[in-house]
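Good morning C.,

I know you're traveling, so I'll keep this short. The sequence:
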Amino acid sequence: MQLKRSSLIPAICIAVTLSLAGMRPAQSQQQEHIHDDDCISCKGYAAFKPEWHFAPHEFERRPVGDDDVLIEILYCGVCHTDLHMVAEHWMKGIFPMIPGHEIVGRVTQVGRNVTRFRAGDYAGVGCLVNSCGECEMCLKGEEQYCPKMVGTYNSIDHDGRPAMGGYSNRIVVPERFTIKVPHNVPLERVGPLLCAGITTYSPLKYCKVKPGDKVAVAGFGGLGHMAVQYAVAMGAEVTVFDLKEEKREPAREMGAVRYVNLRNEDELKGLNNSFHLIISTIPVRFDVDMYLRMLKVDGTMVLLGVPPSDQTPTLSSASLMGRRKIYGSLIGGIRETQEMLDYSVEHGIYPLVEVIPIQKLDEAYKNISEGNFMFRYVIDLQTLE
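The tokens, ready to paste straight into the viewer:
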């Protein structure tokens, strides 16, 4: 396995947790087919029922409208959220389902009202492809909290069509949900930034992390490694918590000052009242109270990992004593996502990835589900036949 590193600061990305609160309800059955003479013929790999098995699938996307961008997809990351969605861990699925919300590609057509893109530009698509554009949250640039937010897949768009994700060759997206990607970047490593990158960047910015802050990152996978690198770039003193000893050295290389192996009780001693901020990326049930006790007075814990519904963690209100706070965060709006991408490029922050042909999706899902892959798989869509 070859992992590709940035020439400046290495980064790794493996999971994004897309909250379901704002998504339009999914239906477990196939949606009614909508046809238009100008529809875009597409092909991809789909799951046809709630199991981690994919097969080729041909389908149509809506015609390119006046405000739309048509993108030839070059690469798409495989996010841990994709596994949850396909397996219906959080909600019923829309099948056939084509996952993928870490998309980067080349613009091939634009609508007449589009001003920021032209054919030949590189562009990215993250976790959102539509919203109402009129509510309080949309006007604030936080479309991820719009009641009519449309996810990139396993969601119903405003025209009634099921949204299909990036495990495919082409996608049609409104210009306002399209991210500008420079030409001088490693394209195969950009997609995961649009999910894992923004999911961790957003709360670090919201909490105003500054030089000298003591930040802990619980879970050193796709989200966790991105959180480490952004926090280090912001000047924080970073501690990493995880279960695997083989992650100690990568954490150190990314700038963490301490690595705590949770299986070593001695390494957990003396950590109460230590941190200004704890970012949890843990995607299974875990001891929330243990981490809350590690917060300083007025410290904050941010939950990014979303476990399956039957593994929801609990906490004791006593652990919040000392004005400790806890909240959840959902990706970021489009404006902040563009800011994150620009920041990542400026600081050389990219994920470590293994690029795979789309035919190896089943194997990739198996490895991720069994914890046999630390960072991020990225699909080369040029392998789609």
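Safe travels,
E.
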